[in-house]
Specification:
- By secondary structure, the chain is an alpha+beta fold.
- It has a single domain, classed as 3-Layer(aba) Sandwich (Glutaredoxin), CATH 3.40.30.10.
- It is built from five helices and six strands, in the order αβββαβαββαα.
- The chain has a four-stranded mixed sheet with strand order 4-1-5-6. A two-stranded antiparallel ribbon has the order 2-3.
- A hairpin with a 2-residue loop joins strand 5 and strand 6.
- Helix 1 crosses helix 3 and helix 2 runs parallel beside helix 4.
Length: about 110
Amino acid sequence: MDTATKTKIESLLAQNRVVLFMKGNANFPQCGFSARAVAILKELGTKFSTVDVLEDEEIRTGIKEFGNWPTIPQLYIDKKLVGGSDIMMEMYEAGELKEILAAPGSLSTITAP
């Protein structure tokens, strides 16, 4: 990944506490996994930002390298990777995702990928 792409990703993460890199956007997800991720965040009443990786190939490939995570969507909270939609679902069902979202900085106390 080039420096410009890394800087762009870091800037996106700095602008919002909760960022979902996904296919499509919150109003029109372009894959089932992205739709599930959005549904989970909305169910929890979370304020979040989305980044449509389909609109920027550099971000689409760069985010996979940035977080060392091979798939999209990717959820970041407090600039830290939480995981994809499967991990989000597991954490949602266990109540962990709600805890993290309720307490800024709490991600460090929960094991994430």
